Every structure is written in structure tokens, then in C-alpha cells.
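#help-structures
NK: newbie question, is this the right format to request a structure? protein is Integral membrane protein
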Amino acid sequence: MSVHDVSTATTSPTVARPVAWRRTLGIVAGVTALAGLAGAVQLVTGTFTPPVSDLDPLGLDSWVLPGLWLATSVAVPCGVVAVLAWRRSRRLGTAAVVAGLLLALELVVQVPFVGPSMLQAVMGTVAGLLVVLGLLSRRQEGSR
């Protein structure tokens, strides 16, 4: 039997059901990964950064380390979610939940140093969306 055989795809136990919200998760995560990467590059290169004095409580004198943290906590996990969505992986839901939680952690760590902003509110919404859609996808797949 072929995976492309539509007549038996719904009854065969060997054909995986599609992950719920795959396209939405892929697009949201892909755009977020690109935005996170752009932000990380800006921080590492010192382009359009907040004042370095915001980092005084951490003892840092440049935005390089926060830029690497942004890449690690947002760009990479969201990029992984986008790739898993494109590959139609069964692990998409779990990866989306993890990426959403890491994005939320990034925001919680960021706010005390640069203050609240509209961008953080938008990204907080994205984090919530990744978690909720990831949980819905996991439930639909039956994995917990």
C-alpha cells in the first residue's frame, strides 16, 4: 500500500495521521525563528541595540552574550519547529510546546533589563500560540 493511496489511508494503521495545526505552527515558528535570528544578529553586531547601561546589573559591557542567548532560546528552537512541521514529524507538538516555553522564558528574563514593550506583548502572544497549538497537536496525535 502506498502512503498516497487515499482510499486506504484513513483505515490503515501504518499511515500516520497528519499533525494538527502543522502549517500554522510551521509558519509561526519559521517567522519567529527568522525574527529571533535577526534580533540576535543585531545584538551581536551592536546594530539597533538598547543602551549597554541596561546590562550593568549583569556586569556585561556588550550585547553579544544576550544576542547568543536570543539565538539559542528563540531562533534555534523555533527553527527546529519549522523544520519538523515541514517534515511532518510526529514530534511537532512537543517541539512547539518547548519552543513556546523557551520564548516565554526569554521574555521573562528580558523584561527586567529593557523594560516592557509592545514587541514583548506580541512575542508573548506568539509564545502562548506555540504552546496551545503544540498541546492541541499532541492531543490529536495521542502522545503525552
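mod (FA): yep, format's fine, and the C-alpha cells are attached above. The chain has one domain: 20-141.
NK: thank you!
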